[in-house]
Structure prediction request, 494 residues.
Amino acid sequence: MKNKIFIVGMGPGKEEMMTEEALAVLEQSDVIIGYSVYLNLLGERFKEKQLLSTPMRQEVERCRLCFEQTKQGKQTALLCSGDAGIYGMASLMYEIGKGYPEIELEVIPGVTAASSGAAVLGAPLNHDFCVISLSDLLTPWELIEKRLLAAAEGDFAIAIYNPSSHKRKDYLKKACDILMHKIEETRACGYVENIGREGTKAVTCTLKELRDREVNMFTTVFIGNSNSEIINGKLITKRGYSIKKRT
Amino acid sequence: MKNKIFIVGMGPGKEEMMTEEALAVLEQSDVIIGYSVYLNLLGERFKEKQLLSTPMRQEVERCRLCFEQTKQGKQTALLCSGDAGIYGMASLMYEIGKGYPEIELEVIPGVTAASSGAAVLGAPLNHDFCVISLSDLLTPWELIEKRLLAAAEGDFAIAIYNPSSHKRKDYLKKACDILMHKIEETRACGYVENIGREGTKAVTCTLKELRDREVNMFTTVFIGNSNSEIINGKLITKRGYSIKKRT
Prediction:
């Protein structure tokens, strides 16, 4: 096993929302590597492990650390929030792994914020949907714009990750303005802050209202499709079933 | 609790891939309702529960059964494969729930096939992506076509659910033909059969090769974006990190 690194999705944060498999892999590890915010969310029983971190934007170094620890004979897990393969470290690990052909990689999937946030809001992604990050650290803003327009063009429900940060306070507003070229401003939308953590807060609103909301970096935003509506305060995207009683 | 129905995502099938929360909710239930294929995947310890089912395409009746069992005083869970809010029963439950205002609903999210299938293949969804079902039971084929084109237009990675069934053997071929209007035929793709179940099989191939593959109904298909490549047999969608050592 020691020549294998597990890349683990922890889900939104609380331990109950991790899979049994993810918990078992962490328990079997000598060292758990991750961004400190996620390491801090781990339960007490994992605090006795060797926990290693690199700062934000030092993701390449964080991945290399996994390979170096494994070469030293330690069973190593790389911890990612949500799902390790959705804006997580999985692909970077495979890229860097080209330099370590003797070390195998295995991704342990987790519950991504599209799923966990949707569950809090109701069922906003219950038909075809897109997931788009507004972070332009690694992606040109023009491509993000193009994807927002394509998602609206296809009448997809949309989950938006990274809608805001200290340096990108107006990005959600910009994204809503783009979407409003194609989508009516009364479209049913919603957002969830701190999913699966202290202070979870879910809000439903129209696209126009969403445009002017300030959301923090721990928020996931949901844009309904043309079949979405608010039912008893929940954001619901209908699948098209006829719910009339069959006769 | 008895006036609350839990709508539970079980993940791909095996118990280790369920969250602790999902397992706890099933343990506390008197009756578990679901499509028989999913009930059969449950571990032995749940077989002593009352397990109720309705046939395929009797989803409305299955949901009504949940409300009726709850009205009889039973703690009820509705079991869905993957995530209950992604092509699951969550939105239909909220729609039907309008007729049962005294009964509360809570969605317990799970690992959807986009995540679990991606983990087997490598990291095909590690940037913005779309999820599209090819089932036209509830969705006009024209809308599915429009979404495929929009997804290609936006250079999204794509996860395709329900790529085939007994009556829709050529739908994946049709979808690939549509995508090839916008995407080069050498695009890196892959598919996974029986994720998290007996006989898991993962294959990588080009879009042109994918067009001519016969896949079964328990398959999830992945189309890379323009930054995807096959690395050591894994389908990887790069996020854009520079992996040169910093100096």
